[in-house]
Design a protein that fits this description.
The chain has helices spanning about 5-30, 35-45, 60, 65-130, 140-145, 150-165, 190-195, 200-230, 235-260, 275-300, 310-340, 345-355, 355-375, 385-410, 420-440, 455. By secondary structure, it is mainly α. The chain is globular.
């Protein structure tokens, strides 16, 4: 029976406290008014050495003009100055809105990433059960332990989403007042055309349905798995199999709709038919990587003696394979949109390439080139340090992927990886460690009673 050590528990709690302070500081340091933003922009403009003078001396250079022409010129200058002031105010108000969004967006990026890892492990566990795979039985309790993070992370996610529908934060621009009212100055014809799907009541109800369904399956599956340990027959095993089949059918639909609702609608003028699959690929590679890292950690502490190098090798193979799958979808989505060159599609990538060029291009290095070079060798897939090192890079790369999905549509070019972003990551990492290892400590680490258990214990690749 695994015991959650006091040292690891302290580390988890410390990460949560430090992370929470970082998140709070992000909210406290946002500008308090548009005037403050205007002053910041003005100072930044001066710091970049931008200066110029209006052409007030043309008449003096050309000689004395008539009084009428002088008055006309003065009026023209006043109108021009008024337009410049109006544009400056509008720009400052826009930047103020983006800066107010930043701590919310930073929190959401970390929250959504850890949600993807957790629900991905739940789905991967269900896939193993439905496939009746023999190799992975000894890893079932690790997967169940990681999915123990599902309830807290989805409850926080649900509260966050409902706060958006209550206009506490404004990440989802389609929720703004007047976007579907033709008489409003905020009317948006594209959003209005999607209002049959993007409306607050339907969006909120769907979120509740998704989250409830995933948590119910996790509860029932875990209950049946524990009951099978001491069972004399395979009743619980068969029930778990049937529930997993139904869950995967439910999950395939809800995962796609979740990706449209919670991520793609941040850029409501854009859409991609590949987006649900793209999120699914990010989810799979991140979740398998998390399984591998937790498994290797437990082995390093003397647990999981029934897990051998072949199990680690297979997990690393999935990390490698799903990295290739993610890259295929990333390239397919990008290449097809670039080749078609349709303005309503290219706007998504133009913004990311112009305002997020370094992290956008770094994605390919961290999520494809690095895993390929490291894990293509079969021997390296059996070396824990290589798997851990590669896994950390993969997880950071896919967090960056989520970051780039969320930030452009919420903060535009006012992004920066600073205290709010680091704080949110630390908070959810601490929560992940605490909930996962608490769950692992509540049941034996070997799921007994499975008819394929012996095959899994003697598995050799």
């Amino acid at each position: 029976m695994y015991q959650f050590s006091g040292k690891l528990k302290t580390i988890a709690l410390a990460l949560m406290v430090v992370g929470a302070l970082g998140v709070i500081s992000g909210f406290l340091t946002t500008p308090s008014s548009v005037a403050e933003v205007k002053e910041q922009l003005h100072n930044a403009h001066q710091a970049h050495g931008a200066h110029g003078a209006p052409a007030h001396h043309e008449e003096q250079a050309a000689g004395h003009g008539s009084e009428a022409s002088h008055e006309a010129h003065t009026a023209q200058e006043e109108n021009s100055h008024h337009d410049e002031v109006s544009e400056e105010d509008a720009h400052a108000a826009h930047v103020f809105h983006q800066l107010k969004n930043r701590p919310w967006a930073a929190f959401y990026a970390a929250l959504f990433f850890f949600f993807l890892v957790t629900v991905g492990v739940l789905a991967f566990n269900a896939i193993q059960r439905v496939a009746q795979a023999g190799w992975s039985i000894v890893l079932f309790r690790v997967m169940e332990g990681i999915s123990g993070n599902l309830l807290p992370v989805t409850l926080i996610l649900l509260v966050f989403l409902l706060l958006g529908s209550a206009h506490v934060h404004h990440l989802f621009v389609w929720m703004a007042d007047g976007t579907v009212d033709p008489t409003s100055p905020n009317y948006d014809a594209i959003i209005d055309g999607k209002s049959w799907w993007l409306n607050v009541p339907g969006w909120s109800i769907r979120a509740i349905v998704y989250i409830t369904g995933w948590n119910l399956y996790r509860h029932w599956s875990r209950k049946r798995s524990l009951a099978q340990d001491n069972a004399k027959d395979l009743v619980n095993y068969k029930k778990n199999f049937k529930m997993s089949v139904l869950f995967l059918l439910f999950f395939l639909f809800t995962e796609s709709m979740m990706s449209w609702d919670w991520i793609m609608s941040l850029d409501p003028h854009w859409f991609s038919t590949l987006f649900g699959w793209y999120i699914f690929a990010t989810m799979l590679v991140s979740s398998v990587t998390a399984i591998a890292i937790v498994t290797i950690y437990l082995q390093s502490k003397g647990h999981l003696p029934f897990v051998n190098n072949s199990h680690i090798h297979d997990l690393a193979k999935f990390m490698f394979g799903f990295s290739v799958f993610w890259t295929y979808l990333w390239f397919s989505q990008f290449m097809l949109i670039w080749y078609a060159d349709m303005p309503e599609e290219t706007t998504y990538f133009v913004q990311r390439f112009e305002e997020y060029k370094l992290p956008f291009l770094l994605l390919v290095v961290m999520n494809f080139i690095f895993p390929i070079l490291l894990l293509i060798n079969s021997d390296y897939k059996r070396i824990p340090h290589f798997v851990i090192g590669g896994g950390i890079v993969i997880l950071l790369g896919h967090y960056m992927d989520v970051f780039i999905m969320i930030m452009p549509g919420t903060v535009g070019d006012q992004w920066f990886f600073g205290i709010p972003e680091i704080g949110a990551l630390l908070f959810f990492l601490g929560m992940f460690i605490y909930t996962v290892f608490t769950s692992l400590s509540k049941a034996p680490l070997l799921a007994k009673g499975n008819p394929f258990l012996h095959e899994s214990e003697t598995f050799q690749y």
